[in-house]
Each structure stands twice: as C-alpha cells, then as structure tokens.
C-alpha cells in the first residue's frame, strides 16, 4: 500500500523528520543504540526513505550500502543527496516492493540489515524476513523498528489483539493530514517471523525519548516517557 506521505510529499517528509520529536528524538536514537560498531560494514537499509539513516551510516565509516524503498521519489532524494555528499563509499539505491523480499540481492553478503519504521507496511513479514536471513552473513545482525503492538492496539477496530489488522489513519507528520495505511500485528507475530526464519532476538527495546524533548514539548515528553510508541528489535542470523 503506497502512501502519498512517502511519494507526493517525500520532500516535505524528508525536511520534517530531520528534527521532529518522533523520528529525531525518539526513533533514531533508540534504534542507533542497538547498532553494532559500523566501521567497515556492508549495510542494507530496507525502506530507506530519504536517506537520513544512510547519512548516519556514512558518518560512522561503513564500507558499502544498499538502500531500498518502493517510492521512486524517496530513491531520487537519496540519489541527489549522494551527488551532494560526494562520498567515496559505494551506495546502491533502488526501487523494490519489499513485500516480494529481496530478489536482486545475493546470499550472505551483508554484515547488517536495518529497517527503521517500514515493516508495518507489509502484510506478511515472512517473504522479507526469509530473505533478510539469506542475505546476511552468518552471525550478521538485523535491526528494525516498528509501531509498538500495544500502542497500535488502541486503534484496533476488531478488539482482537492477536488478529492482524489493516489500519487506515490520517497523520499530521508534515503539518497537514495525509492518509496512511499500515498493518497492526501482535508481538507474537513479529517474534515468530524472526524465529521461523533462522534468526534469534539478541536485544529488544521499547525506546527512550531524548531528554531535550522536555524543553521542546513538555506534554509530549511526559506522554512518551509513560507510554510505548515504537519497539526496537535486534536479531542475529544463527551461524551454521
Ligand atoms: C516511515 S518511512 C521511514 C523511512 C526511513 N527508514 C527513516 O526512518 O527515515 C517508511 C518508508 O518505507 C517505505 N516503504 C513502505 N512500504 C514499502 C514496501 N512495501 N517496500 C519498500 N519500501 C516500503 C516508504 O516508501 C517509506 O520511505
């Protein structure tokens, strides 16, 4: 399900997430806290968006990156940023619907796969998680974030926590309402997709909002320190 938030409004989205509370002060610091030492790694970024994570990865000295998103607008933003940055690191950015996994990627070539805030757009996690395990080197890490299942249960229409549900909402991320559709699923469904596809969870976090938010928006800070919003999972490919 494509959302205009990531296509028609891709440029606005890129600008807003540089410094907004949910991405800049909650999601990114919480996910980055789970990453291994990045120096020299070959990294795959799934649902790369406008390349905000890529910029961080490059600063940390990665060896090579592959960035995938199904929005051509997002991939174009990544390409134009790469021209500006003039990095010597090899970066391959391309369009692919991750519902179909990673048909263009070879086995065992990445040290690290990241996927910040993308998997809730997939109906079935298994095709992608199967391929993530396949493209990781033995012992490689898969680190992703997604909506916290308990937070998403608040917008359940069925009242059945264990049933996967397609949710349609309007988000004000860019300062005007834009329709977004995603899947709400249980924590068991997420952990099953990990364990049934040859990976183990090595760390799990419910995120921590940065202290600066107390000054920026005290009410939001209070809310985010008391309520889960995202979940962060670090998995490892089981070595053969
Ligand atoms: C919330 S944004 C996160 C972007 C980036 N990971 C970040 O944290 O800045 C979600 C991204 O996932 C992409 N996406 C959603 N569904 C996808 C799919 N089926 N295949 C590939 N990318 C997808 C969207 O186009 C969007 O760029």
UniProtKB/TrEMBL annotation:
GO terms, molecular function: methyltransferase activity
One of the protein's GO biological processes: methylation
Entry-linked Pfam families: Methyltransf_11
Keywords from the named record: Methyltransferase, Transferase
Species name: Vibrio panuliri
Tree of life domain: Bacteria
Residue ranges constituting the Methyltransferase type domain according to the UniProt record: 44-144
Protein name: SAM-dependent methyltransferase
